[in-house]
Every structure is written in C-alpha cells, then in structure tokens.
Amino acid sequence: MPDDSIHLRPPAFDRPASKASAGALSLADVPVPEELLLVAQSYWPEPAGSAPMMTDLATAFAAAGAETTVLTARPNYPGNTVYDGYADGSQDSRTVDGVLIERLHTIPPAGGGMKARLIHEGVLHAGFAAARARGRVGRHAAVLSLCPSILSVAIANRFKAPGGRHVAIVHDIQSGLAGALGMGGKAAVKAIRAMERAALNRADAIVVLSEPMRGVLEELGVTRPIHVIPPHVDADAVYPLPRPDQPPTALYSGAFARKQGLEQVLDMAGHLAALMPQARIKLRGQGGLEEELKSRARAMGLGNVIFQPLAPKDQLNEAMAEGDVHLVPQRPEGAAFAMPGKAVTILAAGRPFVSTCLPGSALATLEAQVGAFLCTPPEEPRAMAEAVASLLSDPARATAMGRRGRAWVEANATRAVALDRYARLLLGDAA
C-alpha cells in the first residue's frame, strides 16, 4: 500500500469529457407522444432516490416536444418534513424546464415504519384521485407511473384516455422489500403483493431496471409485457473530471435509509483504517438514519469517516469527482427487489465503485457484463475494505474500470437512449 504522502492521480480521459460520444442518439432524434402525464410520489427538487431519474425523464420528454405534466407530492424525501417554501401550497402548480408540475399535500413518513409509509402514501394518493375527479389533471393518451408507490400505478389508470397507453415503471418491488426488511407482518406483505399483481396487470406495459426484477414480478403473477430498461443519467451533466488534490477517498452519496445497509460501510471503515491509514471515507446524504449512523461512527472512533450533506444538483459532477472509489452498499435480502440508480451515475462519472451484493443480483449481473466495479459479499466488511483499498492503491486499474463504465453508459443509459425506449412503449412500438 502507498504511504501517507501519496495522493493518487488517475490519468486523464483521452476524449473531451463534457459530452457524450459523437454520433450518439440525441433527444431531437426521438419521436414522442404529443402529451404525457407522469404520476410519481418523488420528483425534483428531491436529490436522492427515484426523483433525479424521473426528473431527467420528464424533462427529456419535454425537450423532445411532448407536452409534459407531472403529478407528484410536495417534496420531502429523504427527510421527514416538507421542504421550506412548499408546505403552504404556493408552489403546487408550477412549470419548470418545460414540465408542468402539479403537487399534492402529503404527510412525510417520520421513522420509516410501515404505518408511517401507509399514511404518507394514502394521503397523497387520495389527493391524486381527487385531482382527477375535480378535473385538475385530465386524461392523457400517454401515462407513465412510478413504483414506489404501487398506489401511483393503480391511480395512474384513471388518468389514461380511451385508446391510450399506460406504462408502469417499477424501481422498487414493495412487497419484496417489505418482507425482506421486516416492515410489516405477513398479512401486510400478502396484501401489498396482491395490490402489486392487480395494479401491474392493468398497465399496458411494465418497465423494470434489471432481469432479476423481471423474474420476481413474473413469480408474483404479473402477466403484462415486462421490459428491462436500466437506470439512466444525463451523461452531458455527469462526466469524468480529474480528481481534486486530496487524500485517497471512498465516497457514498445518497439516502441514509435502512435498505442501503450503511452499517456495513462503518464496519468497513475500521478495516480500511488498518489497511490504508491515509484513506478517508465521505458519507454524503440525509435521511432517517443520519443521527444513528453519526452516533455509531463516534462510538467506534472512526476518525477516517466524514459526514457531509448532499451536494446541490448544479455541483453534482464536481462532487462525484471527489470519490476515487464510490460505495454502493445494499442489504442483501432486498437486492433482488431494487436496482440502485446511483450506480449508473457513478459509471457516468468515470469512477469505479464497490458494492455489497449476492451472486445473481442485479448489480452482480451488471458487474459481469461491464467490468467497471467490484462486488463483495454482504456483511463481510473486511472483504469490502480490501476491495476499496485495492482500487485506491491502483489508479491505472481504477481508471480503466472508469472508462468501461462510461462507455457502457453512453451505449445503454443516456437520457436519449432511455427516452427512445420509453417513447416506443408509450407509442405502442417494441422497446
């Protein structure tokens, strides 16, 4: 391992970093529906979870010429309060980046338990139903809905015009996550499973983020066509930058929530301190577990761990560059039911990452295809620390992995590629 005086400097990328490759598909090339409604509980300015991806998708449709409306909640994620300036409803109807955003009242889920989540989703989706009944938002020929929440998928059918198409996007399989993470009893999980099966089988098509997620839905009894479209990213806004002058740094950025399994990162930090004393770990985010994680880090005496808030969107690219290696921890029991969108953002930034995942999971499958990151067994913090240290101490290898990741994003996960596939589904073509 290098000594304390070494600051790793991966070689610069050969091509101009700020744009996708010449000849790549552009938004202007994509035929889109004349109008589109997107029904989702999370949207801009929420900085984590599904919101960034759905914001990119909506603004891409608008930029390509679709009259785009989003029906969503007043922003609150990943915290447990509505953002300043939104609680009074003064911004409940607003156009941003060509997208008309219609927001509804909700009660953010303090604590993250099943009861709090049900109240949050129930209040919000009752508002969605009222918005349809009162004509605030009319029927559309093209409708996209997002799970979570499955209630968004169920309610979205009411907004579909006769002869229109509704495509449901499944980012999280809620029954699987609830059962795997111990949220609610068997009866609650069974009820969610039945709701998922009924709601999804009323959609015209379904999109999941990985092949393992497709298999879970098929086992659930979903019979509608299921298409795999990976998470996407604005590859013109997130691109490889030179690393700043700093100690070797591993970075986690995102929600501080139970399903991320962030306790694994704290355990890993202790091993990394022994393997590579000069390295540091940045944990950027917010959420229900923030104080618990900070308290645990203090109790463990982790001097190599730094907590920071999430970077503003206009500073995201520079913030991503601060990680020589990124961290994508997951709770193993929930990995089959979700695909972390942050993984694709990291690849777009030309950085490798280390994930905790089981063989056959979505990330393990992607790692075998792309070779741009490392997978380690869940709940084995020393193995994770060794993987992180191996990349921090070998900048040439890390850079080569970053190149492969960036190339995969440009071919499979740009805004234009995703827009084309979603538009085809909404127009009734094969994706």
TrEMBL record:
Instruction: Tell me the ranges covered by the Glycosyl transferase family domain, including all copies.
Output: 242-408
Instruction: List the Gene Ontology MF annotations in alphabetical order.
Output: glycosyltransferase activity
| Keyword field | Transferase
Transmembrane segments in this chain: where?
none
**Entry-linked InterPro entries:** Glyco_trans_1, Glyco_trans_4-like_N
**UniProt xrefs under SUPFAM superfamilies:** UDP-Glycosyltransferase/glycogen phosphorylase (SSF53756)
Q: Gene3D superfamilies, alphabetically?
A: Glycogen Phosphorylase B
User: Can you give the residue ranges of the Glycosyltransferase subfamily 4-like N-terminal domain?
Assistant: 49-231
**Lineage: superkingdom:** Bacteria
Q: What is this protein called?
A: Glycosyltransferase family 4 protein
From what organism does this protein derive? Azospirillum lipoferum
